[in-house]
Write a structure and sequence with these properties.
The chain has 250 residues and is α+β, with helices and mostly antiparallel strands. A hairpin with a 4-residue loop joins β1 and β2. The strands form 2 sheets. It has an 8-stranded mixed sheet with strand order 6-7-8-9-10-5-11-12. Strands 1-2-4-3 form a 4-stranded antiparallel sheet. The model has no long low-confidence stretch (mean pLDDT 93).
Length: 250
């Protein structure tokens, strides 16, 4: 992998200089090596492929994965409720207008129209990283979709989209748990669950035996992760690093 940095912010008075860290996947790179180095796929600019950013990502070693008491409570709500179908990405019709509308409408209603516009969804689907598209049906009605990135050693629960009527029933958490359970059965070593920033993401910390990336290593300290998440708003800097300015954000 080819690593590079982009200038972000600074405080010269305290000699604090910020650079955001990226890497570019090269031909022989294994995805599991990129993820284990603290990187996640970047999808914020159109036409960008094989670029990964370093962040406070979270993972669970699957050899020690089991449901916590909170996980079991959520699991009881939805276990055996849906028909799950995992389709290799190349065999799924991502051009289906109903599929794309479902995904965009979920993000618009749940997170706002700027988070997942059609252009960004297209960039993600065209990234070349998605290996499986998992669908969940309640009888004949689509309840959810999950985009997974995987190789022989890891799986990344990248994005989920679900029926907005389940929004206050913890379906998003259950989808994550279900993905982790299937990854464990398949013999994967690690389950990656994206980033943990801000209080809204702390629901992920209900996963037992988690680790988070602190910029140099994986740390198994859930209390510290919660502390960081709850104090993130105090460290927000409203600027964009140079590389993103050049790449053209949505």
């Amino acid at each position: 992998m080819k690593k590079f940095s982009s200038e972000f912010g600074h405080n010269y008075e305290t000699y604090s200089f910020g650079y955001t860290n990226y890497c570019m996947r090269e031909e022989k790179d294994r995805l599991s090596d990129i993820y284990s180095a603290g990187y996640l796929p970047y999808s914020g600019s159109p036409g960008i492929k094989d670029i990964f950013y370093m962040a406070r990502s979270m993972r669970v070693p699957l050899d020690s994965f089991s449901l916590s008491s909170e996980n079991r409570r959520v699991a009881c709500k939805f276990n055996d409720k849906f028909i799950r179908v995992s389709t290799p990405f190349q065999d799924f019709n991502t051009g289906d207008e109903n599929f794309r509308k479902f995904c965009v409408n979920y993000f618009t209603k749940r997170h706002g129209s700027q988070i997942m516009p059609v252009e960004r969804l297209r960039t993600i689907l065209d990234s070349g990283l998605i290996t499986h598209l998992v669908s969940y049906r309640d009888n004949e009605k689509i309840a959810a979709y999950v985009l997974e990135v995987s190789d022989k050693d890891m799986i990344h629960f990248w994005y989920s989209f679900y029926d907005i009527s389940f929004v206050h029933q913890s379906l998003g958490m259950w989808l994550m748990l279900d993905s982790a359970r299937h990854a464990q059965k398949a013999g994967e070593k690690c389950f990656y669950a994206g980033t943990v920033y801000g209080e809204k993401s702390l629901y992920k910390t209900s996963l037992a035996n988690l680790e988070y990336w602190d910029g140099s290593e994986w740390v198994a300290d859930k209390k510290q992760l919660k502390k960081l998440g709850r104090s993130d708003k105090e460290r927000v800097v409203n600027v964009i690093d140079d590389w993103k300015n050049k790449a053209g954000l949505f």
